[in-house]
Design goal:
CATH class of the largest domain: Alpha Beta
CATH superfamily of the largest domain: Diaminopimelate Epimerase, Chain A, domain 1
Largest sheet: 18 strands, mixed
Distance between the termini: 5 Å
Radius of gyration: 18 Å
Oligomer: single chain
Number of domains: 2
Length: 286
């Protein structure tokens, strides 16, 4: 079967940066084995496969180069953005079925795509000592933030790790150590952030490491950005609207918007959004 893969950069800033994803439309006839082969041939961190659905607009599945994952934010953005650019979809509201749940997606007339994520689920925390050796930052430096290290999922479980200003770009990740830690604790990856100074256009700068799933570092991570927004909303007196920069250390700076909605003190909505640009296509035979 000859399969066309659309190649899309997600969370771009003025057409630059972003995180590439593959998108396969009309994927109903592809088996999971074939989807994995396509994702491996593409070689991006994730490839999305769009199929028909009897109840919602689309079913979307996500494959890394090693296996299927429940959800992928930047591949969702790529999927709905490219369908809008191709005229398959108009601006408006849509619903996708994923293994992380049935999730709304909105497309604005300017091409901005905003996706709803799962509500946050916390599944543990770790001490500064637990993380210091794995990430290569001294325990006292980590502790100086005064902020906790927590596992939060808005679709995928990421470990949210705050570091002081000036430490983020110094991290030299140990892929084996991070992968072993994530496998032991059933975590997708590490999402490390430092807060930006007042007056910066960004709330925080971030790096994401998921070597267990074949992703040493990712330049834009939608699901982890949602988790970080929930984390900041709980622990810091910030607004509920955030702008994150990610990928700077990879020379591929990306911009991700995120917001949370409250009912009383409870988070009842998590949104992540951005812009995407098509960068090409690829024919793959499986």
């Amino acid at each position: 079967m000859d399969t066309e893969v659309l190649l899309v950069n997600s969370f771009t800033a003025n057409g630059r940066g972003g995180n590439p994803a593959g998108v396969v439309l009309n994927a109903d006839k592809l088996s999971d084995t074939e989807k994995l082969k396509v994702a491996q041939a593409v070689g991006y961190s994730e490839t999305a496969f769009v199929s028909s659905d009897d109840e919602v607009d689309f079913e979307v599945s996500f494959f890394t180069t090693t296996n299927e994952v429940d959800f992928c934010g930047h591949a969702t953005l790529a999927t709905f953005s490219i369908m809008y650019q191709m005229g398959i979809l108009a601006a408006g509201d849509y619903v996708q079925r994923t293994k992380a749940g049935i999730l709304p997606v909105a497309i604005d007339t300017d091409g901005q795509v905003t996706m709803n994520l799962q509500l946050p689920v916390k599944s543990g925390s770790f001490s500064y000592q637990d993380i210091a050796a794995v990430i290569g930052i001294d325990r006292t430096i980590l502790a100086s933030t005064g902020l906790p290290i927590e596992v939060i999922s808005t679709g995928l479980a990421d470990l949210i790790i705050p570091v002081p200003v000036g430490q983020l770009d110094l991290i030299n990740p140990n892929d084996v150590a991070i992968a072993n830690f994530c496998q032991k604790h059933d975590i997708i990856g590490f999402h490390v952030f430092e807060l930006c100074a007042p007056g910066s256009p960004f709330t925080a700068s971030c790096r994401n490491f998921a070597p267990l799933f074949g992703i040493p570092e990712e330049s834009a991570t939608g699901s982890a950005s949602g988790a970080l927004a929930c984390y900041l909303a709980e622990h810091l007196p910030l607004d509920s609207e955030y702008i994150f920069e990610q990928g700077r250390a990879m020379d591929c700076a990306s911009v991700i918007t995120a917001s949370v909605g409250f009912q009383g003190s409870e988070i009842v909505r998590v949104n992540v959004g951005g812009i995407a640009n098509k960068i090409g296509s690829q024919q793959i035979f499986v």
